[in-house]
Amino acid sequence: MKFIKRLLIFAIICILLGVGTIFGFYVYVKPELPDVATLKDVELQTPMQVYSADGKLISQFGEKRRIPVTYNDIPKDLIDALIATEDSRFYDHPGIDPIGITRAAIVVAMSGSAKQGASTITQQLARNFFLSNEKKIMRKIKEIFIAIHIEQLLTKQEIMELYVNKIFLGYRSYGFGAASRVYFGKDLKDLTLSELATLAGMPKAPSTMNPIYSVERATHRRNVVLKRMLDEGYITRSEYEQARNEPIVSRYHGAEIELNAPYMAEMARAWAVEQYGEDVYESGMKVYTTLDSRLQNAAEKAAINNLLSYDERHGYRGAVETLWKDGNEPWDAEKIAKHLKQQPTYGELNPAVVIKVDAKTAEVELQSGETATLPWDGMKWARRYKTDIRQGTAPKQAADILAVGEQIWVRKVDDAWHLSQVPDANTAMVAMLPENGAIKALVGGFNFVHSKFNRATQSVRQVGSAIKPFIYSAALDQGITLATLINDAPINKWDSSQGTAWRPKNSPPTYIGPTRARIGLATSKNVMAVRVLRKVGLDETIDFLTRFGFKHEELPRSETLALGAGSLTPMQVAQGFSVFANGGYYLKPYFISKVEDPFGALVYTEHPQVICRENCDNNVSKLDSENLKEEENLLEQTAEMENEPQFAPQVISEQNAFLTREMLEANIWGGGEWRQGTGWNGTGWRAQKPLNRRDIGGKTGTTNDSKDAWYSGFAPGLVATVWVGFDDHSRELGKTSRNANLDNAQISGAEAGAKTAQPAWIGFMVDALVDVPEQRKMVPSDIVKVRIDRDTGLLTRKNDASSMFEYFERGTEPTDYVSSAASSGNIYESEGEELF
Fold first, then answer.
1. Which part of the chain is the Penicillin-binding protein OB-like domain (predicted)?
2. What topology does CATH give the domain 64-245?
3. Which of 47, 339, 367, 377 has the fewest CB atoms within 10 Å, i.e. is most exposed?
């Protein structure tokens, strides 16, 4: 009896000592324990996502992939699997499981190593949120106390929801919602029992027990989970057998990008970091750009197809690599497949290896492991590249182009595979709404993986003749009309400081004498542009051009400005052309429309400038805008309007914009009557048949030696600019001879804006305008239409082919009739003349 009494006293003492020890530990670590109440309002770290204006996912940024799910959206089989495997008494314990701890301690005592864990789901949650994974006794003690606090604060459902969303499961996936996407490419609710069990088995060792790292280890672990579910009565024997026999089919699934716009995604990322700091990567914010998915797809297709077309007509530069030569032992399919998996893909371009060459076909093995046939129509373009201005003879058989063992590039055209190559040249395209400055499509280069340099916004290139509309607009501002005669004749200007003469030439070098301004701009006459510049004045012209957002330092103080010596980005050119399209208003381009937090609440919204044409309380008057001398003055005023709706400044008159558009429309449609011998075409005539509408206009641009090719133009509610050139500024776009294997539709001769850039603009507009009805011409007030003589630009009483109707701003129309025209009515260059 005394023994029992002593034993009881000893037990009480032990209990008191234990409680005291626990209390002592608690007092000791209490200052270091986190406030678990933060779990009530926890914001799970989710990646920032970038969307188009119509809700298509463009990209996501952040180290952690997470797709939060609510408790009600967690499949019951997943909850059962986690409880059966990780914490069978989850609903019964207060955060720690004494039975599990005792069992684990016994195992440690008997085996000398920790073969069995004792952490409950609540303890794992505590560790994931507040502690590290270091194996120290003090960390374990803290984990226990935190788990108990969590159980006092949260319900079991709330604990399970946090656990399911927080835990790391490999390949940057955090939470089971993200893991289901990463490993199986499906939503959590769509997974099978086998797939759910696979995921439920991964918390033990997510980096090595996932099915991408090792299918064998993942299968073994899944079977353990299924067996525990069977033993706990969560599934039946038949469900167990069916799930156990199901093979695990898994591969890495990246974010499901719905729209290819990587250059815009990078612009949005940089903007978000500047606005919100580096924490934005884990904020879960949804950044909506201004892109229109349909227009972006159209721009991407048009720009890249045009670039590949340019590259291919200059010849085939040969295989990427020769893996084995004829006569050597060929690689087997497994070795080829392993090699191809290590090669990149660039958009439509896929790596392939030639395994057979016949008379006019070739067989290739693709990166997917499939075998494809290249038809003759898909490779007959591939004459040898020699230089940028010389190509070899047209091939006659497949062996003239390809050899077995070569690694090449192929792309799918319609339903057939074609031989291709990574282009040496590059391209950019920008499309924007002229009414508010929203960027609707942007292509920054051939491929973002290949080169991350954004040529649409960062590449400052000479614009060539694309500058001429702005110079003619300056002349209209000074009183020149569309009917003013300008002498299309050679210019000789002696430079005494250099001891040389400057002799700008037309391209081609043909001259027709006195010519109306409309024709001069539409046909891109260089010497006429120089004379227009002289009439306005060099300094006055530069000042005028800054109204369009161009910077002084980008515009050389030289008459070469008239020929496009100024350097701008494609974005700036599109912005400038928008002024003509919208009636004379400067609008700063923007590309972010709004930002939402993870719960859909609005965090930021853009307030773009708006155009007000009547009864406006405009903060920037027309007079002030027209008298701006530096681009910085305009930007300073527009910057003050950034966060609230403000009126856009009018920088040229509505009449000036209309008359400039008339000349740009003539660039495509020309003028006169072909049947009566007065017809003529502008340099953009190639757009006539594909688009077949009169409410479009534009301007070609080609720099000296054809190093840069441009086309910029407008259509109803849209402005687009295309650039093509080499990143190496010294390299010319060259020229091509005709390929005997191709039809008459092929492009040949010297590369220029009309041949090299305009096809992309046309291709884009064909898709962009498919549902846009043709618009009637809207003539502003104070614009009059009078009949003039085609040759002199003066009034005429004739009603035949020698006459035409022309638009004038009221007060600038001619007053003399051609019958009484004096010789001074024609503007010729005379000795000592500086303006014309």
1. 316-424
2. Penicillin binding protein transpeptidase fold (1.10.3810)
3. 377
Q: How far is Cα of residue 257 from the mean position of the Cα atoms in its chain?
A: 12
Contact 604, 652 (CB under 8 A): no
Lowest-pLDDT range, 52-66, 121-135, 423-437, 663-677?
121-135
Burial of residue 258 (CB within 10 Å: 0-12, 13-18, 19+) is middle
The DSSP string of 35-104 is -GGGGGG----B-EEEE-TTS-EEEEE-S-B-----GGGS-HHHHHHHHHHH-TTTTTSSSS-HHHHHHH
The pair of structure tokens assigned to 652 is 């040229």
Q: CB of 638 within 8 A of CB of 586?
A: yes
Cα gap 823→485, rounded to integer Å: 12
pLDDT in tens, 251-292: 888 878 899 999 999 999 999 999 999 989 888 899 999 999
**For the chain, percent of residues with pLDDT exceeding 90:** 69
For residue 434, say if its preceding peptide bond is cis, omega within 30 degrees of 0.
no
Convert the pLDDT of each residue in 526-564 to its tens digit: 999 999 999 999 999 999 999 999 999 999 999 999 998
Structure-derived torsion over alpha carbons of residues 12, 16, 19, 20, reported in degrees to the nearest 10: -170
Residue 791, CA distances (Å) to 676, 794, 807, 829 in order? 15, 8, 16, 17
| Helix, strand, coil tally for the chain in percent (to 5) | 40, 20, 40
Q: Would you state the torsion angle of the CA atoms of residues 702, 703, 709, 712, taken in this order, to the nearest 10 degrees?
A: -60
| Residue 788 to residue 807: CA distance in whole angstroms | 10
Q: What is the mean pLDDT of residues 696-703?
A: 97
Q: E strands of 503-596, at which residues? A: 513-516, 567-568, 592-596
Distance CA 223, CA 621 (A): 76
What residues pair up with 57 in beta bridges, in sequence order? 51
Does residue 636 have a pLDDT over 50? no
Please report the DSSP string for 243-264 in residue order.
HHTSPP----------S--HHH
Q: Span 214-226, mean pLDDT?
A: 94
Query: Of 22-31, 170-179, 732-741, 790-799, which gets the smallest average pLDDT?
Result: 22-31
Q: Quick one: how far is CA 627 from the chain centroid?
A: 37
Report d(CA 252, CA 267) in Å as an integer: 27
CA pair distance 572, 584, nearest whole angstrom:
16
> b/e for 568-585, b at 16 or more Cβ within 10 A?
bbbbbbbbbbbbbbbbbb
Separation CA 431–CA 295 (nearest Å):
8
The whole-angstrom separation of Cα 219 and Cα 292 is: 44
The confidence score (pLDDT) of residue 29 equals: 44
Judge whether residue 59 has pLDDT over 90: yes
* Domain range 317-420, CATH architecture: Beta Barrel (2.40)
Residues 6+ apart with CB under 8 A from 208: 214, 217
Report, as residue numbers or ranges, the catalytic residues: 86, 465
pTM: 0.84
HSE, CB side, 13 Å, CA atoms: give it for residue 650.
Answer: 19
Running DSSP on this structure, what letter comes out for residue 332? Answer: P
> For tokens 């063992």, what's the residue?
405
Question: Residue 422 and residue 791: Cα distance in Å, rounded?
Answer: 50
- The residues pairing with 805 across neighbouring beta strands, listed in sequence order, are 787
Name which residue leads in pLDDT, 242 or 820.
242
Residue 198 tokens, joined: 């696979």
Angle (CA) 294-759-474 rounded to 5° is 95
- CB burial class (10 A; 0-12, 13-18, 19+) of residue 184? buried
- Token pair in block for residue 468: 């001429």
- The CA–CA distances, whole Å, from 612 to 577, 578, 624, 715 equal 19, 15, 16, 21
